[in-house]
Amino acid sequence: MRKRDDILADAASPENRNLLRLVLLYAVTLGIWLILVMVYSEHYFPPLQKIEQLLMPWRTPLPLEGGLDQRLSFMQRQLDAAAYVSTYALVAMVVFFAALSIYLSIVYQQKQRRARENLFLTLKNQEIARRNEFIRYISATIGHEFKNNLGRIKRRIDLLPGLDTEARMRIGSNLEKLFADIDIFKKISDEREAGLVEFKKINLRAVLEDLVSQYADLAEMSIEESVAAPYIYAAPPLLKTVFENVIDNAIKYRKPEQIRARVRVSCAMDSDGSRRYVTLSIRDEGRGMNEEQADACFYKGKGSGESWGQGLYFAKYVIGLHAGRIRIGKEYTAAGRGAEIIINLPFVEEALGV
User: Fold this and answer.
1) Count of CB atoms within 10 A of residue 172's CB?
2) Exposed, middle or buried by CB within 10 Å (0-12, 13-18, 19+), for 284?
3) Closest Cα partner for 5 from 333, 318, 227, 249?
4) Rounded to the nearest 10 degrees, how much is the dihedral formed by the CA atoms of 332, 323, 233, 112?
């Protein structure tokens, strides 16, 4: 059953619908040119001989019987039928070429729009890279200054007279630990930050299934799809952190009687004017939020005393870097009922290097 649903979802995907339209257009074009060739060559391929009388009424032989008036009347009917055929053929050709021109124009506009969206994402990626380069510079500077100052402190402690040997060893051990922590911090800054800004094609369903496995002991999670979760372009560590923040909130604010949080993730395609989005809905059945908390949860320091808004503030920033949107689903969210986070990510079919 699942395999059949996946096949139906793939068949209804935008890419397959576009391919079907293109195949249909080519089939109609081939049919029209085939008919024109048969009319021009006066040879009809079987089983199309039946339409010869309809398309070429002037080839009907004159009746052998009857007078001159009957023959003239028959010829007049043939001329009228030929005029109708030529008129209908002209109208059909004009309509077809108009439809073809409109279709090609729409396809071109879609390609241009997607190219602009991809260029926008590329510029965003470059902006993130510049910011993270600055962050790495600041981190390296801070680490260097910390080590220098700790080194001076250690040398001054070594010069202190009368310091107990055991105390000196403990202080030395603590300082060595700090040196090691600073080296780890610098390594994380140099290596991990560089990977955070890399946008690449990722399987959204695989990411969601990985989260289900990751939180299996803390939350009862299910994935529902009105369409098959598509591939998208994103920075995987950043996007995964957003999902983790939302799910962590669902676990933290579950109801007291719930041993594990209940979370439902649904995926669908949506559109806003000329732009198409992959819409993710993450619902929980926890304590929920009132209207005031829902309005403030994405603003740093504006939430309740239970730290609402810190993780979601970061989530909003990251989704903005992906040219997407994040909001509270107020139709479902309420105190005592649960909360819904809705994430819109742009659906981009082409690669970033356009």
Assistant:
1) 13
2) buried
3) 227
4) 120
Asked if 118 and 126 count as a contact pair (C-beta separation under 8 A), the reply is no
- H helix intervals, the chain: 2-11, 14-41, 52-55, 68-159, 165-196, 204-214, 236-252, 291-296, 310-321
Q: Which one, of 251, 282, 246, lies nearest residue 266 by Cα?
A: 282
**pLDDT (tens digit per residue) in 71-108:** 777 777 777 777 777 777 778 778 878 887 887 888 78
Q: Residue 281 phi/psi, 5° resolution?
A: -115, 125
CA distance 130 to 279: 29
Contact status, residue 186 vs residue 139, Cβ threshold 8 Å: yes
pTM of the model: 0.49
Long-range interactions of 175-181: CB distance < 8 A, separation 24+: 175/150, 178/146, 178/150, 179/147, 179/150
Residue of 312, 155, 180, 173 lying closest to 243 (CA atoms): 312
Task: Tell the residue number behind the tokens 């309420």, with chain if given.
Answer: 334
**Given the DSSP bridges, would you call strands 261-272 and 219-225 parallel, antiparallel or unpaired?**
parallel
Termini Cα distance of the chain: 39
